[in-house]
Design brief:
With about 280 residues, this protein is of the alpha+beta class. The protein contains 9 helices and 7 strands, in the order ααββααβαββααββαα.
Length: about 280
Amino acid sequence: MSIEKKTAEDKLAEYSGHLEDLVSERTSMLVAQNEIANSLSRSLDLEMILNLALDKVLSVLSMDVGLLFLLNKDHAGVSLGSYRGLLSPSDLEVCIQEGCPYEKVSLEAIKQRSVVFTPTDKNLSGFTHIQQEKIKALISLPLISKDRIVGALTLGSKSPANLDQTNLELLTAICHQIGLAIENANLYHEVELWAEELSTLHQASLKLGSTLDPEQIYNEIATQSAKLAGCQMACVLYWNGTEDGLKILSSVGLKPEKAALICEEPDLYELCLLYTSPS
């Protein structure tokens, strides 16, 4: 009985130690997630969010290189949002332009909507661009907010080993946090733009209603139209319906001699016909 009791006690002690390790591991994961969540909640500025998130992820997971790519609005490719590594800005730009592994693995993670692990060696396309960083392995995960992909997080390690299941779960949770933060920052930026546009429309309405002078009205229309459209140039045209009946009433951002040439553009006459013809 004493031998059986000793065996049972040893197994219980072993299991208790295993449970303690699990609790400690999970606690560390929760602490890391809370740290990142607190960092991301400090700002709605997208650039600051990306930089904070990347710094925290590299620190928590002890990775050597990190990149955050954002999915373009037209979903045609990605744009680099933040980078931490050894490449100079010019080297990084050349690397991305010529198709570096960082961008490729990010696009693959977005396409698959799952984690992608890639060992790096001389056979990897674009390897020469990242050789100086001595990266042995790349891992990339999509950034998802409300089932919508907004980008990808790609990390590089000087160790060839893949992440264990615990760290992979942590990284997946972190990516969801980053994805939601990016979505919130984008929504906030859109609201700011809408507010700015409404303010511009209101100001334009006040100015247009404060005068009956045609020249001032035309100037105000051109000025406010350029602001609303985000253009550097705008002009107000009068057209009497004939091919040579175009006349500039007001313009902004155009020299007088350049503005005069606009009326001579044949494409502009065709455009006038298009928008004034009965549908």
